[in-house]
Write a structure and sequence with these properties.
- The structure holds 3 protein chains of 3 kinds.
- By secondary structure, chain A is mostly helical.
- In chain A, helix 3 packs across helix 4.
- Chain A is built from 8 helices and no strands.
- Chain B is an alpha/beta fold.
- Chain B is about 40% helix and about 20% strand.
- Chain B has 9 helices and 13 strands.
- In chain B, helix 2 crosses helix 8 and helix 2 runs antiparallel to helix 9.
- The N and C termini of chain B lie far apart (about 75 Å).
- Chain C is built from 12 helices and no strands.
- The chains are: A mainly alpha, B alpha/beta, C mainly alpha.
- At the A-C interface, helix 2, helix 3, helix 4, helix 5 and helix 6 of A face helix 1, helix 4, helix 5, helix 8 and helix 10 of C.
């Protein structure tokens, strides 16, 4: 029954999914935090940029963003992020597209986290003479992150599933594998079950573990 | 409480109005497509210029011309034809189910497909080939492709052929459509676009691309385009007869010239019915 | 705008801000100029590529874009109309006192939230093509709607559940104290209040549905707005960049009106808040959903739940 699986690299495809997820997660965490800092910061132009960025990116389908990354950046603007061959370039551009998209959601999760920090914390920090950057880095963000673990977990899980969109530019991840398999094999239910199982294996434990971590680190108020 | 009702009602209204516009459009579509009582439904490609392309003025391309001719011989005038898009992966299912009467959509006759559907024809012999920039002289044979960056459509047999046999070491970019490949080809991010030479000729002969691209002329495989019909259908014999007369009365040559003309595409002579080159 | 995060600005801070503004402006302008120059250099800004959309002729819109847009809206509307009641039922079922109702509902919700919509769509497509006689015209639509419904009903179930859980406990206690049955408590007391608090989150979910129809075009053969680019750009000489830009703008306009509507709704509910009045900011839903639901909170959904205007930048609101 499972014989046909020998022809396909199921583990390899899921490994690509995991790589896409992890790299994009790190990238979007950094870029999303920067965006959140811009949105709460004192420079009006940066605030405007942050708001516009989030509102635009959130309202465009991820497929369009990923296609733009490959078609626009690689094929038109000749940016391939230092990759020498097509496969690496597509992979890196898929990560870039996912970062651009996911960062908007990370930004909102962190902003919501910032909202949970009591006003007194920031006021006290300012009263002892800290600058905006210091207030943010030393007092507010550390608490905001602890409150944002749960929303960020949701973002991470969504990201894991969103990596399937990279199939649109031919990154050999799990969804592309599934499409190839269902077209060639008459084992629809089995194939679907394998892919679904794979994703459950990735997303459910992430949710459980980080959900536990989130409760553990949350600031009791 | 009143406010809640208002907001709830407005939400319902919004979804209803969206649904209503959608339904409204639906009805219009129906009216447009089911004109006379006696129609024939033909599956073609909608996004392959020169082969089958949806245009603001209707449909154009070699497959469209062949299908129109065949339909005429079967007793349907051109306004009795209902065109349907049949994407590559959908063709066998559409025939099996009877969604279309026949399919002329760059449909290569292969042993696997012959198990599922019957083919009339072939009516054109095409070859897998590459499209390169007009000033590019680096690709002269299939072996040269191993050093090149190629582009093709996700899930196509051309892409599979490259990976399996023709040039396993080539770098292959896969996109949902050939147009995306052309953007990269123009900007030198891709060296060659590979698929059937007939499709490539169709793209290259578009007015915007005049003089920019050329066919490699590699003839890497034989693709016998046939007209697909339901397994066991009596249409097969009738379509074969229509195709024969299309070749003998010169309409076939005219259609080839009209659709593939400007692109350095040397078409094979009209194939004999049932003569499938492997 | 004042914020608790930084002091009122004195002359030095103002000068510094002007410097930062100038630097940022230069950076954006440089990036913009580079983009413009490179696109121009690669002939992507040639009028011939953009003319079909900006040249005053409507043929591109009537031939390619409008039919695609209709399909996008049709699939989104159908998915919404089916997913909403289904989600409500699943959400309430998860709150049931009966184990045999609660557990299956939880399993269904958690399962479909854990799997990518794309995979659900591919599965739906093959299912309809192998086991039913839905015609090939309708099959992609059915598959897309099936995928969207399965996934979004699960997310909506979590929104409903979170909305009900977020109500003060006194509401259900008081309702039970006056002798209402369980279903009366739910129907007469909890749901009417929860619906108000959930509306913004639900409307935000509509944006997700609209965006996700595009997945149907990318992997199935659903002729929606995004895939109209294929037919369109092959006719207009591979003007893919121009075509994708136009379609992206259309998506942006549709979704931006939806998010603005959600924001307006949320603001309105916040202003007029009555006794129970806490409006469930989308983030709260994701939060509660995540906590209670083994954390496997929604997905493109979970993200998009975050309301369009989550409070102010500071914490002073």
């Amino acid at each position: 029954m499972f014989d046909f699986l020998d022809d396909y690299d199921v583990l390899g495809a899921f490994w690509t999914t995991v790589q896409l997820t992890l790299l994009s997660a790190v990238g979007s965490l950094v870029w999303g935090t920067l965006l959140a800092a811009m949105r709460v910061g004192p420079v009006p132009l940066m605030r405007g940029f942050g708001t516009a960025y989030v509102n635009i990116v959130r309202n465009i389908p991820l497929t369009v963003i990923i296609l733009f990354a490959s078609l626009g950046l690689k094929d038109t603007l000749s940016i391939s992020l230092g990759a020498s061959d097509v496969d690496t370039a597509t992979f890196r551009l898929a990560v870039l597209g996912l970062v651009v998209y996911t960062a908007a959601f990370v930004c909102e999760a962190i902003r919501a986290g910032i909202n949970t920090v009591p006003v007194g914390q920031a006021e006290a920090a300012r009263a002892i003479g800290l600058s905006f950057t210091q207030v943010l880095l030393l007092v507010v963000l550390p608490q905001a992150f602890r409150a944002a673990v749960l929303p960020l977990t949701n973002v991470l899980i969504a990201l894991t599933k969103n990596t399937t969109v990279a199939a649109a530019i031919g990154v050999a991840e799990a969804a592309l594998l599934m499409k190839n398999m269902v077209e060639k094999e008459a084992q629809l239910l089995l194939i679907s079950a394998i892919i679904a199982f794979g994703f459950c294996l990735l997303t459910l434990p992430t949710g459980l573990i980080l959900g536990w971590v989130g409760k553990k680190v949350a600031v009791k108020r | 409480m009143k406010l809640r009702k208002v907001t709830a009602a407005s939400a319902v209204l919004l979804s209803l109005s969206v649904a209503a516009t959608a339904c409204g459009g639906d009805k219009k579509d129906d009216k447009g497509s089911s004109g006379g009582g006696n129609t024939i439904t033909i599956g073609i490609k909608f996004d392959q210029p020169g082969i089958g392309q949806k245009t603001p003025q209707g449909y154009s391309g070699f497959d469209v011309d062949v299908a129109t001719y065949v339909a005429k011989k079967l007793g349907y005038s051109s306004d009795q034809i209902e065109w349907k898009e049949s994407k590559s992966a959908d063709r066998e299912t559409m025939l099996k189910r009877g969604d279309v009467d026949f399919i002329a959509a760059s449909y290569s006759i292969t042993p696997e497909r012959q198990k599922l559907v019957d083919f009339a024809g072939p009516y054109l012999l095409a070859h897998q080939d590459v499209l390169v920039r007009a000033d590019d002289k680096s690709i002269k044979s299939a072996a040269d492709l191993n050093k090149a960056r190629l582009c093709s459509v996700t899930g196509s047999t051309s892409a599979q052929n490259i990976k399996d046999t023709l040039a396993p070491k080539a770098q292959l970019q896969k996109y949902p459509t050939y147009s995306a490949c052309l953007t990269g080809l123009q900007n030198k991010a891709i060296d060659a676009l590979t698929t059937d030479d007939s499709i490539l000729a169709g793209y290259a002969s578009q007015a915007q691309f005049k003089g920019k691209f050329k066919l490699g002329g590699l003839k890497m495989t034989n693709e016998n385009y046939g007209i697909g019909v339901k397994k066991g259908s009596d249409l097969k014999a009738k379509i074969n007869k229509a195709l024969e007369s299309m070749v003998s009365d010169g309409s076939w040559d005219a259609a080839v010239k009209k659709n593939f003309g400007p692109a350095n595409y040397k078409n094979e002579p009209a194939p004999k019915i049932g003569d499938i080159k492997s | 705008m004042s914020s608790v995060l930084y002091d009122a600005q004195g002359p030095r801070a103002k000068r510094r801000n002007i410097l930062y503004t100038a630097l940022f402006l230069v950076a954006i302008a440089a990036a913009g100029w580079w983009l413009y120059a490179t696109l121009d250099d690669k002939n992507q800004l040639d009028w011939v590529l953009w003319k079909p959309y900006l040249g005053g002729s409507t043929e591109a819109y009537s031939t390619y874009i409008w039919p695609g847009l209709q399909n996008t809206l049709k699939a989104a509307a159908l998915a919404m109309v089916i997913a909403l009641p289904l989600g409500a039922v699943l959400g309430i079922a998860r709150l049931s006192d009966h184990v045999w109702v609660r557990v299956p509902a939880s399993v269904v919700v958690e399962f479909f939230r854990a799997i990518p919509v794309l995979v659900l769509m591919i599965f739906g497509n093959e299912l309809y093509s192998s086991y039913t006689d839905v015609s090939s015209d309708d099959r992609p639509l059915y598959a897309v709607v099936t995928g969207l419904v399965l996934y979004n009903a699960s997310v909506l179930a979590e929104i409903v559940r979170a909305g009900i859980l977020a109500l003060p406990k006194g509401q259900s206690e008081a309702a039970m104290a006056i002798g209402l049955r369980k279903n009366q408590v739910m129907r007469l007391v909890l749901l009417p209040q929860a619906v108000t608090t959930m509306l913004p989150a639900i409307v935000s979910q509509l944006v997700v549905i609209v965006k996700d129809t595009a997945l149907g075009g990318a992997v199935l053969t659903f002729p929606e707005l995004l895939s109209s680019v294929n037919t369109m750009s092959s006719y207009y000489g591979a003007n893919t960049i121009a075509s994708f830009t136009v379609v992206a703008v259309i998506f942006l306009v549709i979704n931006f009106s939806l998010t603005s509507f959600a924001g307006w709704l949320e603001g309105r509910l916040r202003r007029r808040k009555k006794s129970t009045g806490a409006v469930l900011g989308a983030q709260d839903v994701a939060h509660i959903g995540g906590t209670a639901a083994t954390g496997a909170g929604g997905a493109p959904g979970g993200l998009d739940l975050s309301g369009p205007f989550v409070g102010g930048a500071g914490k002073d609101d």
